[in-house]
């Protein structure tokens, strides 16, 4: 049977053996995930850039501790999440809203892209949706975008964030409800 962790194992072994460009390949493969997590948490591009560099410095320093218990992607995502979380804690920025008890249904898709007018309406909705997402607190915003934009499954998000799966589902539910509420305010 083929080992699903074989590519991870080979990449880690190459980096630990200090093979030429091995760490560069690792960074190239996971920099998008790192940027997504850190940028969604901290928002500031300059801070995010610095924190991504810090993430990969930590990955390089502690890669020998990676035990293949989870996918390398999840492990690196966890490092990025922890670096961003510590940054927010140091700046005393709350990671969830105090009133994060809103309940509601899923945000529904709008617009079918059929004609120019519908396309313009859809563009406006997307712009407002992005604005609404940015108004969410860092943790719910990150969980929502990891799940819906990066299409990372809930168990893997739990590994990345250290947040229990049930809490992640709750954040997703409340975030969708909050987005619906914000979109009602933003759209006529």
What layout of secondary structure does this protein have?
Blueprint: H1 6-16, H2 22-42, H3 45-62, H4 72-90, H5 116-134, H6 138-148, H7 154-161, H8 165-186
Describe what this molecule looks like in 3D.
With 188 residues, this protein is mainly α. The protein has two domains: 6-90, Orthogonal Bundle (Rna Polymerase Sigma Factor, Chain: A), CATH 1.10.1740; 116-186, Arc Repressor Mutant, subunit A. It has helices spanning 6-16, 22-42, 45-62, 72-90, 116-134, 138-148, 154-161, 165-186. Mean pLDDT is 83; it is low at 101-117.
Question: What's this entry about, in short?
Answer:
69% of the residues lie in helices and 0% in strands. By secondary structure, the chain is mainly alpha-helical. It folds into two domains: 6-90, Orthogonal Bundle (Rna Polymerase Sigma Factor, Chain: A), CATH 1.10.1740; 116-186, Winged helix-like DNA-binding domain superfamily/Winged helix DNA-binding domain (Arc Repressor Mutant, subunit A, Orthogonal Bundle).
């Amino acid at each position: 049977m083929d080992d699903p962790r074989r590519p991870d194992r080979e990449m880690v072994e190459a980096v630990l053996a200090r093979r030429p460009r091995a760490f560069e390949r690792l960074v190239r493969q996971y920099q998008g995930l790192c940027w997504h997590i850190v940028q969604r948490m901290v928002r500031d591009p300059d801070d995010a850039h610095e924190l991504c560099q810090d993430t990969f410095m930590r990955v390089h320093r502690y890669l020998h501790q990676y035990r293949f218990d989870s996918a390398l992607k999840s492990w690196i995502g966890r490092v990025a999440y922890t670096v961003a979380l510590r940054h927010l804690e140091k700046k005393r920025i709350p990671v969830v809203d105090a009133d994060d008890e809103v309940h509601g249904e899923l945000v529904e898709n709008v617009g079918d892209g059929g004609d120019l007018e519908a396309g313009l309406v859809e563009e406006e909705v997307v712009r407002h949706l992005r604005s609404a997402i940015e108004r969410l607190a860092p943790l719910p915003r990150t969980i929502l975008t990891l799940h819906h934009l990066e299409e990372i499954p809930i168990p893997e998000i739990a590994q990345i964030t250290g947040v229990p799966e049930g809490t992640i589902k709750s954040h997703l539910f409340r975030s969708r409800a909050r987005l619906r509420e914000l979109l009602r305010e933003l759209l006529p």
